[in-house]
Amino acid sequence: MHISNGWLQEVRHVASPNYNARPPASDISLLVIHNISLPPGEFGGDAVERFFTNSLPADENPFYSSIADMKVSAHCFVRRNGEIIQFVSFAERAWHAGRSCFGGETECNDFAIGVELEGTDSTPYTDEQYASLASLTVALQAAYPKITKSRITGHADIAPERKTDPGPAFDWPRYFALLP
Fold first, then answer.
1. pTM to 2 decimals?
2. pLDDT tens readout for residues 88-108
3. Cα–Cα distance for residue pair 132/1, rounded to 1 Å
4. Where do the H-state alpha helices sit in 39-97?
5. Which residues are catalytic?
6. Strands 30-36 vs 112-118: parallel, antiparallel or unpaired
7. Burial of 146 from C-beta contacts in 10 A (0-12 / 13-18 / 19+)
8. Among residues 12, 21, 35, 145, which one has the least CA distance to residue 90?
């Protein structure tokens, strides 16, 4: 994979309006792994894309009415089949972490890249997702060398009172074994 001007060149791009500029002094140095499925526990379809682009109809599913007005995004989304979709340039601040803290630094969106895996805390992730996430991680580490293995974390680790993802189903040793 290759990153040019903040964008992966080999993936589909779906522009999200839910981002803004990183603070001038921020240095991209953290990768945050998340999970999402819409409706919860259901995979496939375009609901995540519509959620990240503010076009998810509140009346389409009872759960959607509770999230339809939220302004959320991630830099990338990795589907169950391994397809990667990029929503926000890595140079910009995607709105994925919310109130968060890592290593004493707050507001992780300022210096983090957020990657959502299509999944749930309790559903095993697919071989294709691990392979794609590892390839993406290697490309990110080449472009942003401050993202070391010790600066890759889960959403639950930076917002433990609010979040649980990527959950116990995510196999951290397996993922780290795929990285150089």
1. 0.97
2. 999 999 999 999 999 999 999
3. 10
4. 47-52
5. 116
6. parallel
7. exposed
8. 21
